[in-house]
Design a protein that fits this description.
The complex is a heterodimer of chains A (442) and B (335).
Chain A (H helix, E strand, L loop, with lengths): L3 H28 L12 H10 L7 H9 L1 H22 L5 H39 L5 H29 L10 E7 L6 H20 L3 E9 L5 E9 L3 H5 L4 E7 L5 H5 L3 E11 L13 E4 L18 E5 L4 E5 L5 H28 L15 E6 L4 E4 L4 E4 L1 H5 L3 H31 L1
Parallel strand pairs in A: 4-9
Antiparallel strand pairs in A: 1-3, 1-5, 2-3, 4-5, 6-7, 7-8, 9-10, 10-11
Helix pairs in contact in A: 1-2, 1-6, 4-5, 5-6
Chain B lengths: L1 H14 L2 H7 L7 H14 L5 H12 L10 H5 L4 H15 L4 H5 L1 E4 L2 E4 L9 H13 L1 H5 L4 E5 L5 H9 L10 E5 L5 H9 L9 E6 L20 E6 L6 H4 L4 H6 L13 H13 E10 L4 H11 L5 E8 L5 E8 L1
Parallel strand pairs in B: 3-5, 3-6, 4-5, 6-7
Antiparallel strand pairs in B: 1-2, 7-9, 8-9
The chains are: A alpha+beta (442), B alpha/beta (335).
Chain lengths: 442, 335
């Protein structure tokens, strides 16, 4: 027999988490732009049902759960909570000076959203525990039990969501995350012969397709094909929202293993190994890098002689030398000289940007497994084994079958990028906690 | 025997009937890359300037690409077809006659537009691309005016007007509508360029006057014909500014094929410039701008001329260097 008091409790539980279920739902829907009508304007019950029916998300919950249970992270959170309480107390004291007051306030503001989320999570966990005990109660009526089970599922989902949200807040933002990128591919010069060039072309097309898949704009800056097929070197500018965040882990050396299509090796069925390098640089907006025009030497055909109407030439190549750094860029892609110059300037900016990024990275001494791609930090990051029809990412030891599907640059590729992203997030998070404790120890 | 064969070959190089080339090259497996190096050598032998560039552009044009690097890899591996080979041959022969490449392929790029180039229209130079940027950067009242009126004097292919129209902020009107007052639209490619760029000539949000001064073969348009359209915000011009004494030193491409009226600026290269400056105060609004391209010697001469002619109510705002760091553009304003 159930007492009325307990039923009331169940109801209050419902009310309790309805009130804050809606908010995270809203946040989720904002990302799912593809299904219109799945929005916050629906009545609460509707959202609730849809929430149950929504397909499982691709990201792996287990991983985030594992992270959550990590002892270090829990310690970190506890420490933050303590700090927050401490700050609140100290701010209320009148003896604190105004300057200190300001710094305290700043830190307090930083921590507040984290603490608020933590409290929400704790409340949800409390609910989950109560429901748990209710389910365990064997005297419960069948219907109520059913209801409680469903509820429990919901609460768990919510906890998961809140935790993810909290982890997102805890992650430090990379300065360039939201910027566009310049992606460069270069074929390797190993014994692979033409498989390197062919592979380079395939990978470049993969990124091109991925850009289409993601509805980003993809603009080819340079394209140097081989005489015998394939691609020596190419660069493209990809613009859209938050591209660097997604593509930064693509930088590095990609290895290919396959039997060449022509020549002796193809007849002998000999497997060749080749490489190609991908460089991903954040593309700066005008504000980030200022180049003094005096630092530039611009070489064109027109630099000699009178120029203007006196000369009619079709040579529109532009070569820009950045004198302080000695960087040289060239563009002869377009027939319009000014467009060539603009493109060359863009490439120059990207290269200067790379220098700055590298400097920053070396300053920070980040011991992360995943590194922003650049020539200096090149390490084999992924292997495309055509003979075994699989792609292996060495950093997260993740394998994908069906290489053809992967090279189309659609779902399987996106999936891998997502995984890399999650993995990198976790690494960063752990690093942040370590840094925090090492700082407080000092 | 040997001598005659050499003589014969010399003759043949100049005449070069199609079969000679066909024999020399194994036409069956001519890839674009080989063709380019072949024609480059031919051009170099005949001392044609820009040998490599010319051959690359002609070959890629026959293959339907803009530059050699933009030929799709699939095409660049395969041998070209007989038809394409013949076409390249024809174009190469024209180039040997020193016809400008732009006239041979009948198009050229100006900024991001591809414009039709038929003789004798003036081929826009890269410096003029910067003139457009200058007008947009410094022509404040042009950008703030609700119904901007631009006068381009000596518009050639219409490149500057088109580029300006595409870059001016779009007001309430749909993209790029303008009224072209063709006072003297003789060069057919100009009209086609306007139509190709998607402008229709019926609406009247932007008013661009393509205006022809001083054309000896054609009665000049009197400035009075511009009166009914009201005062103008900005005058842009890339007038003929080559000194008559320099004309004979021009490359054959320019001297033989381009319209001299678009090049020859008189003894001091300022004939048309002076004409524009005399006319400008009468046509311009208060604080209206004049943007001119000129010879590197002209800014100096122009400021001297202005001090000698105080009746011309214009003041020199700035002179701007082009990307080769030469004094190229002047910005004047009605005072």
């Amino acid at each position: 027999m159930k007492s009325t008091r307990d039923i009331g409790l169940l109801k209050s539980c419902f009310g309790h988490f309805y009130s804050w279920i809606v908010a995270p739902q809203r946040i989720q829907t904002r990302h799912i732009t593809k299904c219109p009508g799945y929005g916050s304007h629906f009545p609460i019950g509707h959202t609730f049902l849809q929430g149950l029916g929504c397909p499982p998300r691709r990201c792996c919950y287990n991983d985030s759960h594992a992270t959550w249970c990590n002892e270090k992270l829990q310690n970190y959170l506890n420490a933050l909570r303590k700090e927050h309480e401490d700050l609140s107390q100290r701010r209320s004291l009148s003896s604190v000076k105004e300057d200190d007051q300001r710094t305290l306030g700043k830190r307090h503001n930083e921590l507040s959203p984290i603490i608020a989320l933590l409290k929400e999570i704790q409340a949800a966990e409390q609910d989950a525990r109560e429901l748990e005990s209710m389910c365990a109660d064997k005297n419960e009526k069948e219907e109520l039990l059913q209801l409680a089970m469903e509820e429990k599922q919901m609460v768990n989902q919510n906890i998961e969501m809140l935790r993810r949200k909290l982890l997102q807040i805890l992650l430090p933002n990379d300065k360039y995350d939201m910027s566009d990128v310049v992606l460069e591919v270069t074929s390797g010069r190993t014994t692979g012969g033409d498989i390197c060039q062919q592979f380079t072309q395939e990978v470049f097309e993969m990124y091109q397709n991925y850009a289409y898949y993601k509805a980003w704009s993809f603009e080819i800056l340079t394209y140097a094909p081989c005489d015998f097929g394939g691609l020596h070197h190419a660069a493209a500018r990809i613009s859209g929202e938050g591209i660097y965040k997604l593509l930064k882990y693509e930088g590095g050396t990609h290895r290919v293993q396959r039997i060449p299509e022509v020549g002796l090796s193809s007849r002998m069925q000999r497997i060749h190994t080749g490489t190609m390098t991908v460089i991903v640089l954040p593309q700066t907006t005008e504000i980030d890098i200022q180049i003094n025009p005096k630092d530039l030497r611009i070489d064109t055909f027109r630099a000699k002689g009178a120029g203007g109407q006196h000369v009619n030439t079709t040579d529109s190549a532009v070569r820009i030398v950045h004198l302080p750094s000695g960087i040289v860029v060239e563009c002869q892609q377009e027939r319009s000289q000014l467009l060539n110059k603009d493109k060359a300037m863009m490439m120059l900016k990207a290269k200067l940007q790379q220098q700055i990024v590298e400097e920053e990275l070396s300053q920070r001494h980040r011991a992360r497994k995943l590194q922003v791609g650049s020539r200096t930090q090149s390490d084999r990051i992924r292997t495309y084994n055509f003979t075994q029809d699989r792609v292996t990412d060495h950093r997260i030891s993740y394998e994908v079958r069906n290489i053809k599907e992967f090279l189309k640059g659609e779902e399987p590729f996106d999936d891998l990028i997502q995984r890399l992203q999650d993995f990198a997030d976790m690494e960063t998070l752990l690093e942040v906690t370590e840094n925090y404790f090492s700082k407080t120890d000092q | 025997m040997h001598k005659t064969s050499i003589m014969l070959r010399r003759l043949l190089v100049n005449v070069t009937p199609f079969w000679v080339h066909q024999r020399g090259l194994r036409t069956r497996d001519m890839t674009p890359g080989l063709l380019v190096s072949h024609w480059q050598k031919v051009f170099q032998d005949h001392q044609i300037p820009d040998a490599q560039d010319s051959s690359e552009i002609l070959v890629s044009h026959a293959l339907g690409a803009k530059t050699f690097r933009l030929i799709p890899p699939a095409l660049s591996q395969r041998p070209v077809s007989d038809h394409q080979l013949q076409r390249i041959e024809r174009m190469g022969q024209q180039r040997l006659q020193r016809v400008p490449v732009q006239y041979i392929i009948e198009e050229w790029d100006f900024l991001d537009m591809t414009l039709l180039m038929r003789p004798p229209v003036f081929i826009p130079r890269p410096e003029t691309e910067e003139l457009v940027g200058l007008v947009l950067a410094d022509g404040h009242n042009l950008l703030s005016s609700w119904e901007p009126r631009i006068l381009e004097v000596g518009c050639g292919s219409g490149a500057v007007s088109l580029a300006l129209l595409q870059r001016l902020p779009q007001r309430s009107a749909p993209r790029g509508t303008l009224r072209v007052c063709h006072l003297s639209l003789r060069v057919s490619s100009r009209i086609e360029n306007f139509l190709n760029c998607g402008f229709n000539c019926s609406s009247d949000i932007y008013q661009v006057f393509l205006f022809c001064l001083f054309n000896p073969s054609h009665p000049p348009d009197p400035p009075e014909r511009l009166r009914p359209f009201g005062l103008i915000d900005t005058i842009v011009s890339n007038p003929p500014y080559i000194f008559t004494s320099d004309m004979s030193q021009l490359d054959p491409e320019i001297y033989r094929y381009e319209d001299h009226t678009a090049l020859d600026g008189g003894p001091d290269g300022m004939d048309v410039i002076k004409g524009i400056l005399r006319l400008a105060p009468r046509l311009l609004k208060q604080d209206g701008d004049v943007f001119l391209e000129g010879d590197p010697r002209h800014p100096e001469m122009l400021s001297q001329w202005l001090t000698r002619n105080p009746s011309v109510q214009l003041r020199l705002i700035s002179t701007v260097r082009d990307f080769c760091k030469k004094q190229r553009f002047v910005h004047l304003r009605r005072s």
